[in-house]
Amino acid sequence: MKEESTVLEVRRRKAEELEQMGHPLFPNDFRPTDRAGVLQELFREYDQQALEKLEQTFRLAGRMMARRDFGKAVFTHIQDETGRIQVFVKRDEVGEEKFKLFKKYFDIGDIIGVEGPLFRTKTGELTVLARDIRLITKAFRPLPEKFHGLRDTELRYRMRYVDLIMNPRVREIFRTRTRIIHYLRDYFISNGFLEVETPMMQPIPGGATARPFKTYHHALDLELYLRIAPELYLKRLLVGGFERVFELNRNFRNEGISTQHNPEFTMLEFYEAYATYEDLMRRTEEIFVGLALELYGSPKITYQGQEIDFTPPWPRIPYRRALIEIGGVPEEILESREKILEFAAEKGIKVDPREPVLQKLWAKLFDALVEPKLIQPTFITEFPVELSPLARRNDRDPSITDRFELIVAGREVANAFSELNDPRDQRARFEEQIRKRLEDDPEIHPEIDEDFVRALEYGMPPAAGEGIGIDRVVMLFTDSPSIREVILFPHLRPEA
Fold it and tell me: Binding positions for Mg(2+) 2 (predicted)?
């Protein structure tokens, strides 16, 4: 800590001396015309002779990441958004005064501007020969040591700005995230979907089962909730006549934080009139194969050492059968609450012994015994009605719904179903949810969204809808083990 304070004091002293000499610490009149990574790519094949023939001056700005002092000359590397390039600062080229200034007052971490031609060193490294050099931004804090960087994971997330400076891999993750979002947006727009925005603050949280964040609107004297899902508003748009809609936006759930969960996360939800959940299975296969090809040129990717093959068709396994055949749950205990509790205890699975809904106990077994075993893309279908309050009942078996979850690499990535559009059935299910609500259960809000039921009474066309967790998709396609790796600023406890 003392060492850090000393370094900070030295840098502040340098900054004060520069200002006293009339050199601004944060000028805004330097305009780079070239980028480090672009130059590296453009002139990758040029030898020294070819570079000399260019007779061209290049102008770059970037952060100093390293320097080697040779008395009358200094090699440094600068880094901009596109990559790094070496700069050779020589007294005879920039002049005595600028060279002294550079050597004494410029530090690693400072953002500088350089101008000059390109050449290759004896080792073959593409280098800018500085004919002019300027300070653009003075860094008051030093960067982490080159070989140590930010090793503390929480510190990396808390100081993401430093993490991005020091780790090219991290920058690449977020570039890939942007490419994924652009691909998805382009896919839906090109397939006739209308991109929309629905309320982030809602008087009744609906569309999923989760604990909401509460807020208060003073002008309306109204308690509001940050949305847990946009579903009920998107369905209102189907009622209104938009037949294909999608939204890419944030959801908020006041629940635990883990490698798979962040309280604030990005979802893609889309709804398609005159379609079924089976149509969405085909569309989902198309989306994920397209993504893999777009990013890596192959339907196969590697995630945490395992090959994931998105080549369709993907297996489709009914929920109950998955419990029995994959989860190893004896079929004869599925209708006995007591036997399920005993089985869960034997397996060390935490369940609420007061839970009155049998199928919710099934869900706990599924999460522990089935989901982690599904590595290749798999559709789980035929969910019980009790676990699917907004999904359409199956025509042949009304105890199950026309719903699927997509499981990849042991976690849910997407959830979809043919939509329930019978207002009578919808009201009955809302009422049943409230009736079965436990006194201490914070997950189900005890209020029916009457306006949504009213919307259904005006008539919603048959439709199917799906939600895709963008953060989990990015985890898959960037080989990231934790959701915090793919969120720029994940939520953390306050610093002590």
Answer: 412
Q: What is the DSSP string of 292-346?
A: HHHHHSSSEEEETTEEEE-PSPPPEEEHHHHHHHTT---GGGTT-HHHHHHHHHH
Write the single-letter amino acid at 405: E
Each residue's pLDDT tens digit, 308-366: 999 999 999 999 999 999 999 999 999 999 999 999 999 999 999 988 889 999 999 99
Q: Are residues 293 and 426 in the same domain?
A: yes
SS3 154: helix
Residue 148 lies in a domain: no
b/e per residue 197-211 (b: at least 16 CB within 10 A): ebeeebeebbbbbbb
In whole angstroms, give the CA distance from residue 229 to residue 250.
Answer: 8
Position 47, amino acid = D
Residue at token pair 């189907």:
238
Do 116 and 86 share a domain, yes or no? Answer: yes
The better pLDDT of the pair 373, 433 is held by 373
Question: Could you tell me which residues come within 8 angstroms of residue 421 by beta carbon, excluding any fewer than 6 positions away?
Answer: 392, 456, 459, 460, 461, 462, 463
Q: Count how many domains the chain has.
A: 2
Query: Is 450 labelled as part of a ligand binding site?
Result: no
Query: pTM here?
Result: 0.92
363: Cα within 13 Å, side-chain hemisphere = 15
pLDDT at 47 over 60: yes
> Do the domain assignments include residue 351?
no
Same domain, yes or no: 276 and 421: yes
Tell me the per-residue pLDDT of 418-450, one tens digit each, with 9 for 90 and over: 999 999 999 998 888 777 665 555 555 568 899
* First and final C-alpha spacing in the chain: 16
